């Protein structure tokens, strides 16, 4: 049997550097990348051409001409006298695509590779051994998606059934996956197939009447699928197969429509401090979920929740952890109130077929289905815009507008269960948007571990900033915050340097004009990494926020904390992008891309086939700047701006002709227009009124194009909301179980007032609430489906260190599994200080890790003191960890007159003191709460 594989590979322009001898005066130098250097291109030169001296040789002379020559100078036959230019043969593209096979014995073999001359190649292979084979396919030195491919080979004469094809190893959600079953000579018996995975997969079979059966299945969600092929109730060799289905190129949009039961609590329940209350409801089965408290028109308290079971429920309402009066309360839920997805009626042609660029309609009727939230997600080749009209009578009119043809998956859930028929597979036809997509993929290696005392470095690129506007601090796991050094390595490339004193996760804050740069605060682990993966990759830079047509758009990607893996970056929009990638070999890289057309673009960043936090990024590439580059801003406020008070700055046109406009975007995302007034012919005043505390973005455009530096970042309010000072702890960030209410604390003490946004992504929606506690805010949630959940915590729009947190949930399915679901809550926080340290006016002492026995001391001042003179001694705590040095001297008439302590760096100190009376003195030296060796010292005068 000959196995045939078909691959579609990008046809890219080759870039050689080693073919200088094949240069023609009227042609540019031909270049090829280093990874292709081992693949020798074949070219033809005109007869009589001297390749060494780059000129025509003597007629009929075979030296350097007459025959084609390869890069290594070997003679090759077949060039005509009148051939006037160098020609690359078509199979050059094949040579740059490597393929080999690892046989069951471990030996390597090579398949036959054929170029189809249409951007695809075909691989043919005649197996020599039975068993599991691995096919490695590389393009430009990198494995193509899905490589290595596994397939099982069996002897045809054995009468056993075999299966082969790409659908057994990999696929893309929403696209058909194919494989073939070879049944010739198998005898009598029944053939059965099953595909199990994150979603249902419709299977279709076709008997080819030649001893083979073609099988196609359509996976509707990414993940691992288990494909079972049985003959006579027994698995064939290699079965069950594991196929990895990705969501590559798939766009997803989702909406949720709440439909909850609202119940007034029995009796008169009044509480003035409403924000300090939280509530949870426990069903008869024991399932406990957070629920929302509401202030009813009569002033009484009510709760809002989704009924899941019939019977008596118990509601607990607590204030700062203590039950309020009459809590817990009892509520009875009837049969009609429990949400039943099977009673939801869905009608409309929009769930059967669709058209691009038009509204595809369907109707959802929940009138007989009880109470429950309705969630809708649509996944396909484009991010279809969803419109939902609630008719206020239990029915909803829903429409979606895709922009690309192809298969779309519509997930429709009510009360966390799929309605009948969901997920729906819809074939959308029509014209596409001619969206262009470019992608690069690079292998990221693990960086060497850093140890205590080593020189640590974190790099980032920020073109156009002044070094003295940058500042950095590093906070150790013990809570010690120290200034870090920033130096400019090259133009626009900066490095933060620090020397850690303990193992664990450090927080590195980098600020530009007192505002965190994109990506800051950074997590930097000293010692072995405790957690890796896509959720540990972060990206930031202007190229993820805005850009200009024809100009480089740049951003940083930090993969250090994620460990080794594959990093893929895609740019999708009206025109194809030229992507440049620079690896800094320290766990960070720099990406630059250029696009030729303005419009909406999406930047996707994936690590090991999973989107990193906040990916994909959506941004607008503006037209070429034109006269906008002439404009400049003056008197822009850098501090002292308060919410609900007007602020202003000046814009000079400098002779540019056109329309000036400006808007202010608050931290919550709301937009407000700025008031623009002409001062004279070439100067304008821009006034705006910030409504919230936090970092605002001021967009200033000229003829619809951002002026240099726009959008400008402005911190509003006295409160210094610092995401680097926010920490999260609790069992809800560890391993959890379905149906069990869990929680975690977000500590905002000394972080200032700001906006706390909590988002939980996972295989099901979660009931969640957030209430104020002494040290910050408590977040409670109840997962319903096992799997991996990612909890994102943002403070004033910045991820705190550790976010997103990866949480593993085990247990039984209490709701139906679907695509990734999102639950979120946003809280405007108040300024908090810790009350645990009463004498410190709210200051919290960090948790020190030190050993006072390792402190050394020396100097005459430890034994003898001279009256009226400086008495000196030194303290070295460089090996004793971090803590605070305390020195005190007590004499015959009380404390010593004066003591001076000077820090000499690296926890080395010089101490001097003066005594005014003769007598016996006692010198106490403590490193934190513990005496150093020899303390207390007895000093004579």
From TrEMBL:
Specify the domain of life of the species encoding this protein. Answer: Eukaryota
Q: Where in the cell is it found?
A: Cytoplasm, Cytoskeleton
GO CC term (a single one): cytoskeleton
Question: What coarse category fits the chief subcellular location reported for this protein?
Answer: cytoplasm
Q: Where is this region: Disordered?
A: 49-80
Any single GO BP term: actin cytoskeleton organization
- Residues in Filamin repeats: 98-153, 153-245, 244-333, 336-428, 426-526, 529-621, 623-716, 718-809, 847-941
InterPro entries (UniProt xref): Filamin, Filamin/ABP280_repeat-like, Filamin/ABP280_rpt, Ig-like_fold, Ig_E-set
Q: Which SUPFAM superfamilies match?
A: E set domains
Q: Which is a Pfam family this sequence falls into?
A: Filamin
Q: Which family does it belong to?
A: Belongs to the filamin family.
Q: What is this protein called?
A: Filamin-A
């Amino acid at each position: 049997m000959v196995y045939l594989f078909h691959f579609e590979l990008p046809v890219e322009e080759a870039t050689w550097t080693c073919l200088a001898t094949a240069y023609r005066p009227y042609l540019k130098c031909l270049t090829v990348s280093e990874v292709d250097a081992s693949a020798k291109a074949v070219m033809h030169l005109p007869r009589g051409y001297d390749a060494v001296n780059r000129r025509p040789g003597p007629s009929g002379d075979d030296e350097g001409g007459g025959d084609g020559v390869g890069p290594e100078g070997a003679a090759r036959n077949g060039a005509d006298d009148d051939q006037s230019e160098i020609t690359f043969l078509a199979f050059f593209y094949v040579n740059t695509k490597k393929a080999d096979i690892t046989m069951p014995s471990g030996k390597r073999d090579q398949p036959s590779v054929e170029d189809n001359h249409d951007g695809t190649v075909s691989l043919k292979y005649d197996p020599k051994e039975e068993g599991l084979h691995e096919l490695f396919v590389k393009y430009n030195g990198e494995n193509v998606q899905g490589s290595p491919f596994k397939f099982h080979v069996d002897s045809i004469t054995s009468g056993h059934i075999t299966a082969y094809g790409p659908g057994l190893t990999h696929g893309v959600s929403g696209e058909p996956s194919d494989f073939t079953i070879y049944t010739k000579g198998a005898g009598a018996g029944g053939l059965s197939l099953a595909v199990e995975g994150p979603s249902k997969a419709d299977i279709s079979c076709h008997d080819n009447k030649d001893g083979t059966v073609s099988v196609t299945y359509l996976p509707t969600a990414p993940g691992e699928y288990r494909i079972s092929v049985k003959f006579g109730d027994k698995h064939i060799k290699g079965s069950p197969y594991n196929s990895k289905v990705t969501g590559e190129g798939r766009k997803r949009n989702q909406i949720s429509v709440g439909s909850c039961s609202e119940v007034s609590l029995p009796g008169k329940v009044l509480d003035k401090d409403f924000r300090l209350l939280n509530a949870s409801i426990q069903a008869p089965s024991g399932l406990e979920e957070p629920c929302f408290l509401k202030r009813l028109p009569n002033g009484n308290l009510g709760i809002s929740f989704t009924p899941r079971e019939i019977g008596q429920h118990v509601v607990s309402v607590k204030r700062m952890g203590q039950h309020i009066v009459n809590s817990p309360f009892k509520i009875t839920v009837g049969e009609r109130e429990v949400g039943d997805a099977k009673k939801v009626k869905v009608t409309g042609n929009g769930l059967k077929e669709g058209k691009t660029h038009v509204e595809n309609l369907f109707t959802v009727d929940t009138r007989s289905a009880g109470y429950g939230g309705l969630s809708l997600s649509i996944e396909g080749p484009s991010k279809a815009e969803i419109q939902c009209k609630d008719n206020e009578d239990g029915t909803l009119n829903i429409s979606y507008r895709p922009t690309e043809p192809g298969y779309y998956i519509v997930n429709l859930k009510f009360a966390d269960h799929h309605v009948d028929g969901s997920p729906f597979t819809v074939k959308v036809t029509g014209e596409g948007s001619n969206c262009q997509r470019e992608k690069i993929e690079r292998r990221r290696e693990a960086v060497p571990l850093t140890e205590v005392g080593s020189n640590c470095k974190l790099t980032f690129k920020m073109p156009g900033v002044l070094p003295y506007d940058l500042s950095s601090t590093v906070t150790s796991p013990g809570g010690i915050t120290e200034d870090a050094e920033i130096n400019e390595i090259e133009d626009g490339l900066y490095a933060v340097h620090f020397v850690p004193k303990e193992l664990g996760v450090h927080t590195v804050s980098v600020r530009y004009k007192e505002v965190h740069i994109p990506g800051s605060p950074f997590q930097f682990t000293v010692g072995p990494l405790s957690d890796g993966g896509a959720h540990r990759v972060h990206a930031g830079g202007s190229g993820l926020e805005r850009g200009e047509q024809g100009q480089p758009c740049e951003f940083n990607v930090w993969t250090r904390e994620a460990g080794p893996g594959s990093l893929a970056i895609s740019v999708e929009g009206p025109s194809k992008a030229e992507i440049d990638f620079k690896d800094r070999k320290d766990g960070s890289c720099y990406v630059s891309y250029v696009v030729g057309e303005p419009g909406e673009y999406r930047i996707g960043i994936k690590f090991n086939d999973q989107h990193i936090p906040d990916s994909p990024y959506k941004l607008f590439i503006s037209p070429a700047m034109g006269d906008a580059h002439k404009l400049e801003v003056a008197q822009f406020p850098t501090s002292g701006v308060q919410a609900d008070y007007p602020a202003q700055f000046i814009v000079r046109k400098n002779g540019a002709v056109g329309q000036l406009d400006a808007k202010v975007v608050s931290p919550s995302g709301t937009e407000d227009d700025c008031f623009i007034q002409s001062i004279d012919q070439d100067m304008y005043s821009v006034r705006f009124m910030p409504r919230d505390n936090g970092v605002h973005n001021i967009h200033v455009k000229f003829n619809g194009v951002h002026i240099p530096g726009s959008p400008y970042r402005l911190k509003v309010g006295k409160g210094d909301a610092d995401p680097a000072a926010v920490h999260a702890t609790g069992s809800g960030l560890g391993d959890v179980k379905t149906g069990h209410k869990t929680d975690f604390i977000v500590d905002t003490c000394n972080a200032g007032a700001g906006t706390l946004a909590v988002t939980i992504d996972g295989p099901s929606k979660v009931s969640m609430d957030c209430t104020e506690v002494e040290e910050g805010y408590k977040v409670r949630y109840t997962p319903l489906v096992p799997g991996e959940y990612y909890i994102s915590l943002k403070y004033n729009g910045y991820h705190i260190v550790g976010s997103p947190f990866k949480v593993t949930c085990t247990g039984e399915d209490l709701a139906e599994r679907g695509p990734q679901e999102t639950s979120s809550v946003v809280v405007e926080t108040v300024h908090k200080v810790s009350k645990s340290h009463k004498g410190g006016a709210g200051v919290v002492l960090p948790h020190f890790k030190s050993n006072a026995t390792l402190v050394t001391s020396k100097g005459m001042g430890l034994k003898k003191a001279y009256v009226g003179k400086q008495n000196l001694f030194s303290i070295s705590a460089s090996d004793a960890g971090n803590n605070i040095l305390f020195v005190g001297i007590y004499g015959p008439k009380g404390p010593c007159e004066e003591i001076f302590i000077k820090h000499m760096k690296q926890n080395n100190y010089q101490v001097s003191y003066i005594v005014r009376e003769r007598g016996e003195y006692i010198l106490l030296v403590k490193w934190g709460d513990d005496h150093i060796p020899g303390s207390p010292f007895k000093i004579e005068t």
